[in-house]
Amino acid sequence: MKHVAFDVIVVGAGIAGTSVAAELSKHASVVLIERESHPAMHATGRSAATFIPSYRANNPALRLLTRASGNFLKSPPADFSEQALLKARGMLTLLNGVSPQASQRELEQMNATLEHSIVELPVAAVKERIPVLSDEWSSAGWWESDVRDIDVHALQQGYMRALAKNGGRFLSSQDARPHWKKGAWHMPIDGDIFSAPIIVNAAGAWADEFAASANVKPLGLQPKRRTVILVAPPADHDVENWPLVAAYDGSFYFKPEAGMLLVSPVDEHESPPCDAQPDELDMAYASEFAMQALNGLAIKRIAHSWAGLRTFAHDSTPIVGFDPAVPGFFWCAGQGGHGIQIAPATAKLAAALIRGNENSTKLKDLGFSAEWVSPTRFL
Ligand SMILES: Cc1cc2nc3c(=O)[nH]c(=O)nc-3n(C[C@H](O)[C@H](O)[C@H](O)COP(=O)(O)OP(=O)(O)OC[C@H]3O[C@@H](n4cnc5c(N)ncnc54)[C@H](O)[C@@H]3O)c2cc1C
């Protein structure tokens, strides 16, 4: 049995852990540990892969992490990825049941915080974008042009390559169970003992469970299951250039996905951390809403379905920072439904905090405060 020392051990190879490990590896010796046989097998590999600047933009932490990440995603470092990380999509929000006054008020509030304006479209313009929209769902809409598809695989691979290039290590099929002794964290890995003075908890839905296993007080994170189905689009319609379409009342969203339609009933069922599976009832809701919304859509078969866990702190704001009660235990968890679109800026922030150099990120210039995401808010 060898003792192998690192500066930092990162636990969890979803987008959170992988991006933090890659950022840290520029300046430190890092190992990334994953329990599954491959990275990104849980929430990261199951997302809707969308970048939405207005998504919960009334939360300043999420808004600014999204904005700073957008800059990275739009123009990543030259050697990061051969493919573009973002693709134009646009988003249409159907305003059924929303009065013109309420829409105007909300739009003004949102636009005051965003870099690009969202505009209101009359029904005719909404129908131009989605010609088979049913009468029941035909309404005025909001159009957000800056919404993009994210190539999650390319993003994850870009970070994995950067980690390897900087001399960082990645080990899969390893269940991290650390203990603190004599100024460092230690854990048995592959017959050896890995040690580091700092450990990063990027265990996604398992972040509280992982903390407890290290004798660190859990922070009350709640995983919530969300379901997605893939179905054939209405016959004779090429949906490739359709936008992401979401109901204002939160009953569904759909978007094109490789010639098919990806539909979610926007479910949020509390769940223990697990390999989430789609529920029959949620799949039925997704089918039903899609068929109500689109003329000519007859779903005879669900081509594919999946579910994943979105994990939230009680204030629905991510947790990024050192645990105030336990030395060297760093949280990077609770990304909820934003984990992909905020990963680049969150990783830079985490790396800067770990290096004691918070002001080195561009977030500060945007007016971001690390206190908003600090675990000290749970004291
Ligand atoms: C249906 C759906 C749609 C979504 N759509 C979007 C979207 O459009 N845009 C967006 O930005 N976000 C979206 N999200 C949210 C996004 O997917 C998550 O916020 C993000 O993937 C969380 O990443 P993570 O790395 O924290 O978690 P995960 O990807 O779950 O990674 C955590 C990893 O930790 C590992 N792990 C846990 N415990 C241990 C241990 N003890 N030892 C070793 N490894 C361990 C797990 O195996 C796992 O691989 C969506 C999520 C879902 C489910």
Describe the SSE topology.
Elements: E1 3-5, E2 8-11, H1 15-24, E3 30-33, E4 50-51, H2 60-74, E5 86-88, E6 91-94, H3 100-111, E7 119-121, H4 123-129, E8 141-144, E9 148-150, H5 152-165, E10 169-171, E11 179-181, E12 184-189, E13 192-196, E14 198-201, H6 207-213, E15 222-231, E16 244-247, E17 253-257, E18 260-264, E19 269-270, H7 280-293, E20 304-312, E21 319-322, E22 329-333, H8 343-354
Parallel strand pairs: 1-13, 2-3, 2-14, 3-10, 6-16, 14-22
Antiparallel strand pairs: 4-9, 5-9, 6-8, 7-8, 11-12, 12-13, 15-18, 15-19, 15-20, 16-17, 17-18, 21-22
Helix pairs in contact: 1-5, 1-8, 2-8
Model description:
It is a single chain. The protein is α/β, with parallel strands linked by helices and 379 residues long. It has 2 domains: 3-69 and 152-220 and 315-378, FAD/NAD(P)-binding domain (3-Layer(bba) Sandwich); 91-145 and 222-312, D-Amino Acid Oxidase, subunit A, domain 2 (D-Amino Acid Oxidase, Chain A, domain 2, 2-Layer Sandwich). The protein has 8 helices and 22 strands. The protein has helices at residues 15-24, 60-74, 100-111, 123-129, 152-165, 207-213, 280-293, 343-354, and strands spanning 3-5, 8-11, 30-33, 50-51, 86-88, 91-94, 119-121, 141-144, 148-150, 169-171, 179-181, 184-189, 192-196, 198-201, 222-231, 244-247, 253-257, 260-264, 269-270, 304-312, 319-322, 329-333. Strands 6, 7, 8, 15, 16, 17, 18, 19 and 20 form a 9-stranded mixed beta sheet that branches. Strands 10-3-2-14-22-21 form a 6-stranded mixed beta sheet, with helices on both faces. Strands 1-13-12-11 form a 4-stranded mixed beta sheet, with no helix packed on it. Strand 17 (253-257) and strand 18 (260-264) form a beta hairpin. The longest helix is centred in the N-terminal third of the chain and has 15 residues, at 60-74. It is globular. The two termini are 39 Å apart. Bound molecules: flavin-adenine dinucleotide (FAD).
